[in-house]
Amino acid sequence: MTDAALAPFAALGITGLQLHRDPDSAVERIARLYDEATFRLKEALHRFAEGDRPTAPIPAFYPFVGVRVDPGELNLDARLAYGVLHEPGVYGTTLTRPSLFGDYYRTQIGILLSNHRAPVVTGVSQRRIPLPFVVEEMTAAIPPERVNEMQYLFPMPDLSRTDDDIANGTRRAFVGEAAPLALFTAERVDYSLARLHHYTGTQAEHFQRFILLTNYQRYVDHFEEHGRNEIEQGSEYDRFVGPGNVVTPNRHFGDRPASGRAPGHLPQMPAYHLTRPDGRGVTMVNIGVGPSNARTITDHLAVLRPHCWLMLGHCAGLRRSQRLGDYVLAHGYVREDHVLDQELPPFVPVPPIAEVQVALQEAVVNVTGLAGPAVKSRMRTGTVATTDNRNWELRYDELWERLNQSRAIAVDMESATIAANGFRFRVPYGTLLCVSDKPLHGELKLRGMANQFYRERINQHLVIGLEAIRILRDEGPDRLHSRKLRSFEEPAFR
Questions:
Q1: CA–CA distance, 455 with 333 (Å, rounded to integer)
Q2: Are residues 480 and 371 in the same domain?
Q3: In this structure, are 173 and 313 located in the same domain?
Q4: Which of 205, 220, 379, 440 makes an SS bond possible with 327, Cβ 3.0 to 4.6 Å?
Q5: Taking the mean position of all CA atoms in its chain, how far away is CA 144?
């Protein structure tokens, strides 16, 4: 029976196969295979730096996990959003960084085992681990004249096999390949982990499962102040981490020293993390202005499989009845950003996530003290139009008609992009904006007006976002991962 269960995976070229009926043993073996493979890579690089030249390809391959589901083992329970396979067949994926994703792998494998009566299989894939994803400072000890030689002797990233076809719903099954078990291959994950550090200035292990995205530095200033107060006075969060991996520990969690070194210049999209031991703290990223940055950062954050990301930022109000400082809760989007049109065509609707919408509205009530009809005097729910043109106001005649027909109540440059990528990557999303000007009605963001607005609203807006995260966390993040984010041909891993 064991040989019969392993045969389909052996036919795919997977070696060192083992069966597992519990997630702990599967994750333990995945970690061991990964550690052994990366050790061989590091040893080979060390020998190369000392003058040795590899004479054969280095046997460093990503671990593999898979499952074969027969027709009698299917689970067609319509209540399940993930962790289930609806077609018989052979499924699998490559895995990376078990030290970072171990709990996630354990949970997903455990759900898969409980929903099907089939064991999972671990083994060694045929996909080599690229050296740059293992050794960050790989050229530091190597003479310049030998650096170019490395790309011919060591495995390097293969972008032809690093794409989003699975997440985009465009991948087609090929004979001789396992159907996907996860949205991302190991190479795609490693690529994003490296880019996250580049863009945000912090290592992937600091990112939390709840993420706030903003387009203004003053939100970050208030988040830093809030985070440091929590570390000094609170007992929920164990660390505050900033760019350069500067760690400020909470003394209530033990006598740990501060660490890290602040960079001379901030990265393009600096990240700050108020961490909890269970990873369910809060990360804030200043993504700057525009849909390009919004798409870039969420492309990479998605591999961390967060429970939710929320956009907190400023917008232009489109209603005369709106006042500066009013809130806009987006329940629909006009996608004039265009940066995701190839991956998620404009005809695809981006629905609101009910649990997130309710949490954001409840947070507004809790923080502002408004209730009943009074809430509508300071918050409007409706469509947000996201544009890729910062000077959209100068196209008044053209855009007036489009905005009027769309029933949009606000314009910004990031929200639809963030929501669309959340939909694409199955990450629950939400948007709460604050009206900073009303250019179509002659109320421009003038200097004195802006300063007063910033002082009065930004901190309250941030507190609302943090309160929404508290609500979602307390309710249990599993409720967030809605079936509406899943397609009819969906990998089992969340």
A1: 29
A2: yes
A3: no
A4: 379
A5: 36
- For residues 459 and 313, membership in a common domain is answered with yes
261 touches 295 (CB < 8 A)? no
What whole-number distance in Å separates Cα of residue 61 and Cα of residue 412?
A: 44
Phi, psi (rounded to 5 degrees) for 320: -65, -30
275 part of a folded domain: no
What's at 14, amino acid-wise?
I
DSSP 8-state class, residue 118: P
- C-alpha span between 400 and 209 (Å, rounded): 39
Tokens linked to 412: 């910004």
Per the domain annotation, does 261 fall within a domain?
Answer: no
Distance (Å, rounded) from C-alpha 401 to C-alpha 383?
Answer: 15
pLDDT greater than 60 at residue 454: no
Q: Which residues span the domain enclosing 417?
A: 206-214+298-485
328 and 361 fall within a common domain: yes
Mean pLDDT value of segment 220-226:
96
Q: Would you say residue 224 lies in a domain?
A: no
Integer Cα distance of 212 and 470 in angstroms: 12
Whole-number average pLDDT of the chain = 92
pLDDT digits (tens, 9 = 90+) for 337-393: 999 999 999 999 999 999 999 999 999 999 999 988 999 999 999 999 999 988 777
Place of tokens 């001789």: 176
Q: Rg for the chain (alpha carbons), in Å?
A: 24
Handedness of CA 132, 134, 140, 144 (dihedral sign): negative
What single-letter DSSP state applies at residue 375? G
- pLDDT score at 255: 84
Say if 232 falls within a structural domain: no
Report the number of distinct structural domains present in the chain: 2
Distances (CA, A) of 256 to 242, 252, 272, 463: 17, 10, 19, 28
Same domain, 210 and 166: no
Residue 443 has pLDDT above 70, yes or no: no
Q: The domain that contains 304 carries what CATH number?
A: 3.40.50.1580
Give CA–CA dist 454/349, Å, rounded. Answer: 33
Cβ pair 313, 216 in contact under 8 A: yes
